[in-house]
Amino acid sequence: MVLSGTAPPTTTIQPTTTTTTSTATSPGNTTVPTQPGTEIPYGRLVTGCTVSGTVAVTFDDGPYQWTSALIDSLNAANVKATFFMVGKLYGCIYDYASVVQKAHNSGHQIASHTWEHKDLTSLSTADQQSQMTRLETAFKKILGIKPKWVRPPMGAQNSQVLSNLGNMGYKIVTWNFDSQDWNGASVSSSQQRFNALGNDPKIIPLEHDALQSTAQQLGPWLITWAKQRNLKMVTLSECLGEPIPGGQYTNVGGATPRDSSWVC
Ligand SMILES: [Zn+2]
């Protein structure tokens, strides 16, 4: 089984099967090709890459105890990924501040996965905003940036959520390839799914660095898989042709030394 350690109930990371998420598994149906160097507008929902020859591997639900070694594996191969981080789920983001900084300093993209991984479609507008701003505060303290990209927990979104997130300065991304690691799929079964893909699938694969088997086995294996396919493993913004880092972050300054406010 893939779950190990002190993982919370798997229900917290399962994509829902409601109609609000049906677009998440339909490759590319809302991804609008953009001119290279053009930023995706706030409020837009993206599901797949647009730049040929790229793959934007995404890791959700960390930072957690496996994240640091995964970053080391990516760095050793000189490839990039995107981390959709939460404030409080498996661990508390402030307890992994050095891991968050290592990921950012290594050039991996940092994005929001909300503070507590709640289904945004079930929350009021104010509660949705609170889920975003609490994590913004943590990113400001730890990194001095505000991410411009968010992945709604479980991919759950609707027009109200998209509008609200857009008004808060966010672009929204789900995925167009699911390795099913969150659903108990074995590493070999996930690998078979990747191996069955075509030559230039322009995928944004959904992975979870909070799962030990993904961080230690599937993630590192993907580096080799991409190389063999002649695919460049890049950040989300790079696979969309966005300016970097302008498409990724707003620089809000003020990364600060740890103090007593660094708690969940
Ligand atoms: Zn998640």
TrEMBL record:
GO biological process: carbohydrate metabolic process; cell wall organization
Membrane topology: Lipid-anchor; GPI-anchor
InterPro entries tied to this protein: Glyco_hydro/deAcase_b/a-brl, NODB_dom
CC terms in the record's Gene Ontology section: plasma membrane; side of membrane
Cofactors: Co(2+)
Location(s) in or outside the cell: Cell membrane
Gene Ontology MF term list: hydrolase activity, acting on carbon-nitrogen (but not peptide) bonds; metal ion binding
Keywords carried by this UniProt record: Carbohydrate metabolism, Cell membrane, Cell wall biogenesis/degradation, Glycoprotein, GPI-anchor, Hydrolase, Lipoprotein, Membrane, Metal-binding, Signal
Region annotation (Disordered) ranges: 1-39
UniProt feature, compositional bias: Low complexity: 1-31
Pfam families: Polysacc_deac_1
Domain NodB homology: 53-234
Keyword Hydrolase listed: yes
Record PANTHER family: CHITIN DEACETYLASE (PTHR46471)
Protein name in UniProt: NodB homology domain-containing protein
Taxon lineage: Eukaryota, Fungi, Dikarya, Basidiomycota, Agaricomycotina
